[in-house]
Design brief:
The complex is a heterodimer of chains A (about 90) and B (about 210). Chain A is an all-alpha fold. Chain A has one domain. Chain A is built from four helices and no strands. The longest helix of chain A has 23 residues. Chain B has about 210 residues and is mainly α. The N terminus of chain B is likely disordered. The chains are: A mainly alpha (about 90), B mainly alpha (about 210). At the A-B interface, helix 1, helix 2, helix 3 and helix 4 of A face helix 2, helix 4 and helix 7 of B.
């Protein structure tokens, strides 16, 4: 089995594991941290192995890495500090 | 005729000194990356809309996924990831000057990608039959807006795949000139990356 096949299999396995975890009734912090982790890990796998960013221009790579890092952090922030976000985004 | 940086001409595995930060290659071409950065900014803004809506309506976002068909989201994820894998193989094939194999991989990627709108069509039919439309609640408004917006970008990607499939079948790409094919591939992978965020937002996270 080649490298691309191993990456593909792992991506599929992580997808099924995440969906299974949610379907078995988990919620709250455990699910939030799992989802944030899966977004970060799966995003990096596609960026590094499908898009070959480890060998790409550093500016392009950094933008993609920032995207795959920022979004999971926002998932955690919204879950843990939702009240703050609500206050910050309430008019009047 | 596509042009290509000489550093991109050789198969990656044979590039001398292939170390992080030193190759500095631009996969595909510069133009596609302008488009990809625009797409990333667009979806980052849409994700912020999701986070703000969730902060204001936590109950709606906690119960919302229960009414959606998780299998549809999982199926779309598997279709996109498998289609993306096919494009990886297509790029690998053209680097070996195996145009026939590259064409078959692109055709398979295209067919799998077409499964996405098909699944989406049945999912939306199911939703509407069960009274879930854009006005059912804030969660479903954001769900329709984000997923349909992503679907539009997938359509652009499918058009790109169809175009590079046609050009590959005509022998337009080779191991020294495949930036057009690679540009379509990286755009297609970008739709993967974005879907990997959208999928847990609406089908998994509670």
């Amino acid at each position: 089995m080649g490298h691309a096949e191993r990456v593909w299999l792992l991506l599929i396995a992580l997808t099924l594991a995440g969906a299974w975890f949610a379907e078995t009734g988990h919620a709250g912090w455990p699910l939030t941290l799992l989802v944030a982790g899966l977004i970060a890990v799966k995003g990096r796998m596609v960026i590094d192995h499908y898009m070959e960013m480890t060998r790409a221009n550093a500016h392009i790579r950094h933008v993609l890495y920032a995207f795959a890092t920022l979004v999971p952090l926002l998932v955690i922030f919204t879950h843990g500090w939702g009240d703050l976000l609500r206050r910050l985004t309430t008019l009047n | 005729m596509d042009t290509m940086d000489p550093a991109c001409a050789a198969p990656l595995a044979t590039l001398p000194g292939a170390k992080i930060d030193t190759d500095n290659r631009v996969p595909g071409n510069s133009g596609i990356w302008v488009g990809i950065f625009c797409v990333l900014v667009e979806f980052l803004l849409l994700f912020i809309v999701y986070f703000v809506a969730k902060a204001h309506h936590p109950e709606a976002f906690q119960t919302g996924p229960d009414k959606l068909v998780t299998l549809a989201g999982v199926t779309i994820t598997m279709l996109l990831l498998t289609s993306g894998y096919c494009m990886v193989k297509a790029v690998e094939s053209i680097r070996r000057d195996a145009s026939g194999a590259a064409f078959r991989w692109i055709a398979l990627a295209f067919l799998l990608g077409c499964g996405y709108p098909l699944v989406k069509y049945f999912e939306i039919r199911w939703n509407i039959a069960h009274g879930i439309d854009g006005e059912t609640g804030i969660f479903y408004t954001v769900y329709y807006y984000l997923t349909l917006n992503h679907l539009v970008h997938v359509f652009w990607g499918l058009l790109g795949l169809a175009w590079v499939a046609l050009r590959t079948s005509r022998g337009s790409y080779s191991s020294t000139d495949y930036s057009g094919l690679e540009a379509a591939a990286v755009y297609w992978h970008t739709t993967d990356v974005i879907w990997l965020v959208i999928f847990p937002f609406f089908y998994v996270l509670r």
